[in-house]
Amino acid sequence: MDAEIHRTSGEADPVAAVGADGSSMPTIAIIINHAAGSVGAVDTAGIVGPLRAAGFDASILLACNGSEIATEAKRAITAGVGVVVAGGGDGTINAVASLLVGTPIALGVLPMGTLNHFAKDLGIPLGIASAVEAIIAGHRIAVDVGEVNGRYFLNNSSIGIYPNLVKDREERQRRFGKPKWVAFFWACINAARRYPFLDVQLDADGEILKRRTPFVFVGNNAYTIEGFDLGGRKTLQAGKLSLYVAQRTGRLGLVGFAVRALFGRLRQASDFDALLSEEIAIQTRHKRIRVSTDGEVTTMATPLRYRIRPGALNVIVPAPAAAGPAPLASDTGAAAL
After folding, report:
1. What is the pLDDT at residue 15?
2. pTM for the complete prediction?
3. Tell me: the pLDDT tens digits for 274-314?
């Protein structure tokens, strides 16, 4: 069975198809970031074939950047599809999910990135064939979404050293053609030499903190503490933001923070504040500041106003019996930090 593939050049919108018996076939738009970390040669037939065999009208749309991903997602939404599937890393998932927040349209996930934090925390299989099976099964849950100054995030947002590292790494890749990890290493060295700090005032549901810090991290729900490491999340349905603030640390500590932030594994210590909140306001002396949301960096005006959007996104995940040892808890809050 040949897969129907559109590229982002204004092809026809995905619309409901008619089956052999004359009935309408549910339509799924699959948007794949062809530049994602583990995409390689996309097995389109292996994705579309099982979906069509299960009675879905499925088509794949290949995109190469954030703008194309958003364009295809908007086109699919306008066409009235019931499910939009995003194939790529956390940035790709965010780009599609941001357009589905507050709508009845469900998000399907094909994990094709390097880290795939969102998929892992929801128990979505990292194998593409198994992820497609979960989409066919169609078990939906409503998960929380974080928001900062109108921009959504599914995993986390940060200010300070990490957004600066990302921009430095991208610049080194662009100018010198260095591989991502080599560019990131030299960006870490450069950050340690500059020794950057922010003077921030944080208001978390009325609790005021004033800190001089290299790093502020805000998570969509609580990140679990495993020993001394912040790992994944037990739930994305507790209706809370998690706030982690690093206080003063040394140059080597800054590099350690940056590396653990990249892999989503921050370290809790005596100089590390952690709390849960529904809303967070962050004020600095800077009128504009770099902000990372799910790994994508933008510049925002201060103050930064974070809030949680409970149950704002419908996501297709494996049914609880098939989700493994870490299903989402729908009736318990996040553990106190």
Report:
1. 38
2. 0.79
3. 899 999 999 999 999 999 999 888 999 999 999 999 999 99
DSSP β-ladder status, 156-160 and 215-220: antiparallel
CB 282 within 8 A of CB 217: no
**What is the mean pLDDT of the segment spanning 139-167?**
88
Q: Residue 160, exposed/middle/buried by CB under 10 A (0-12, 13-18, 19+)?
A: buried
The conformation of residue 98, written as its DSSP 8-state character, comes to: H
Q: b/e string for 36-49 if b means 16 or more Cβ within 10 A?
A: bbebeebebeebbb
Other beta carbons less than 10 A from residue 319's beta carbon? 13
For residue 30 the two structure tokens come to 């699959």
| Alpha-carbon distances, residue 58 vs 14, 30, 31, 155, 189 (angstroms) | 8, 7, 11, 28, 46
Other CB atoms within a 10 A radius of the CB of residue 181 amount to 9
Which backbone phi and psi does 19 adopt, to 5 degrees? -75, 180
Is residue 55 within 8 A of residue 19, CB to CB? The reply is: yes
What single-letter amino acid sits at 276? L
Taking alpha carbons only, the member of 218, 279, 243, 236 closest to residue 118 is 236
Look up residue 129 and give its two tokens.
């064939």
**The pLDDT of residue 90 is above 50:** yes
Q: How many CB atoms lie within 10 A of CB 331?
A: 7
How many whole angstroms separate alpha carbon 243 and alpha carbon 225?
A: 13
pLDDT for 230-266, tens place per residue? Answer: 568 999 999 999 998 876 666 666 666 556 555 555 5
Beta bridge partners of 274: 244
